[in-house]
């Protein structure tokens, strides 16, 4: 019997669900224990020391008792530390992205839908198809306001914010259909911002892959975005040894994941957030040795285009 089988609880459909439930039930258990302990003692005192009960000894009330005081300091302290330790452990596991092989799926939140972009180029709205046992990392961003991505059966959620990538991971362990919600009030149709996570067996997943049409890989689409916005006029993408200089701007070949020295000192790792900020707010972090002449593409490139563009930049130089 596990608690996912109880009708009041969501299924425990991910590998993290049981440990999240364990911590939640521990907190609940400790709260209930002390709530009832205090209540029972309170009722006993109410009855026992009621006005007019002549049998009670009311002389010489004790002013302090070191033994009792140390007990009520020590036990709650140890319990709190235990709960903190357990909670911190589970939280760390939930929000530390796994380094082992995983599928990275892009999520764009938008009033009022979830757009999902798979590494092979598929797109879906309000539906997420996964293969059971695959570790999945979601890279999420919002096109407008703050949303929050929540799969109750996986016991995991995270805010989805404009202008900033946030990450979530899970490993579905049971095939089935699980509800997916926006759990941040994001406007009048917030309640419509929901969908389904379909966890499929390997056979069913293969069938699904065959029936859904593909639209070219993200990096192929990104190459078109690169051309559309004229990025190639300033940025060289070919591998020519002889410095980082492209045509006018920095060379992009092999840039992703590299440490970039900045004008005025300091450095930054060229991850998704840095690349995105450099495209939208080019004056923010100038690469050492370059002039701040790049125009801003803020309000011009939308989030799905940005994801494709980043996939393209990641692909230049053969990195994933
Ligand atoms: Cu998006 Cu609520």
Describe the structure.
The chain has 320 residues and is α+β, with helices and mostly antiparallel strands. The protein contains six helices and twelve strands. It has helices at 17-48, 66-95, 202-211, 218-228, 272-280, 303-315, and strands at residues 103-110, 113-117, 123-125, 127-131, 136-142, 147-151, 156-160, 166-170, 176-182, 194-200, 259-261, 267-269. The chain has a five-stranded mixed sheet, covered by helices on one side. A five-stranded mixed sheet has the order 4-10-9-6-7. It has a two-stranded antiparallel ribbon with strand order 11-12. Strand 6 and strand 7 (156-160) form a beta hairpin. The longest helix has 32 residues, at 17-48. The model has no long low-confidence stretch (mean pLDDT 88). Residues 109, 112, 147, 182, 184-186, 190, 193 line the site of dinuclear copper ion.
Provide a concise account of the structure shown.
With 320 residues, the protein is α+β, with helices and mostly antiparallel strands. It has helices spanning 17-48, 66-95, 202-211, 218-228, 272-280, 303-315, and strands at 103-110, 113-117, 123-125, 127-131, 136-142, 147-151, 156-160, 166-170, 176-182, 194-200, 259-261, 267-269. The strands form 3 sheets. Strands 3-2-1-5-8 form a 5-stranded mixed sheet, covered by helices on one side. Strands 4-10-9-6-7 form a 5-stranded mixed sheet. A two-stranded antiparallel sheet has the order 11-12.
List keywords for this structure.
five-stranded mixed β-sheet; 12 strands; alpha+beta; elongated; 320 residues; 6 helices; binds dinuclear copper ion
């Amino acid at each position: 019997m596990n608690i996912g089988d109880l009708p009041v609880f969501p299924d425990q459909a991910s590998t993290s669900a049981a440990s999240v439930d364990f911590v939640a039930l521990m907190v609940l258990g400790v709260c209930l224990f002390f709530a009832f302990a205090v209540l029972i003692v309170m009722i006993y005192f109410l009855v026992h020391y009621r006005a007019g009960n002549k049998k009670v000894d009311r002389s010489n009330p004790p002013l302090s008792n070191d033994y009792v005081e140390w007990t009520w300091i020590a036990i709650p302290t140890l319990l709190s530390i235990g709960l903190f330790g357990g909670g911190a452990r589970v939280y760390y596991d939930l929000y530390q992205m796994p380094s082992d092989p995983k599928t990275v799926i892009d999520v764009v939140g938008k009033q009022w839908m979830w757009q999902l972009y798979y590494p092979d180029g598929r797109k879906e709205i309000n539906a997420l198809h996964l293969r059971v046992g695959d570790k999945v990392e979601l890279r999420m961003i919002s096109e407008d306001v703050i949303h929050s991505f929540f799969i109750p059966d996986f016991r995991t959620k995270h805010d989805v914010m404009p202008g900033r990538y946030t990450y979530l991971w899970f490993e579905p362990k049971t095939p089935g259909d699980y509800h997916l919600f926006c759990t941040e009030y994001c406007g009048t149709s917030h309640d419509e911002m929901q969908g389904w996570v379909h966890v499929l067996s390997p056979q069913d997943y293969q069938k699904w892959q065959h029936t859904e049409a593909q639209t070219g890989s993200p990096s192929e689409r990104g190459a078109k975005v690169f051309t559309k916005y004229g990025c190639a006029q300033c940025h060289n993408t070919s591998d020519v040894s002889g410095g980082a200089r492209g045509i006018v701007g920095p060379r992009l070949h092999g840039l992703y994941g590299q440490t970039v020295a900045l004008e005025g000192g300091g450095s930054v790792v060229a991850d998704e957030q840095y690349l995105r900020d450099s495209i939208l707010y080019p004056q923010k972090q100038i690469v050492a040795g370059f002039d701040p002449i790049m125009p801003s593409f803020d309000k011009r490139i939308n989030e799905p285009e940005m994801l494709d563009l980043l996939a393209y930049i990641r692909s230049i130089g053969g990195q994933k």
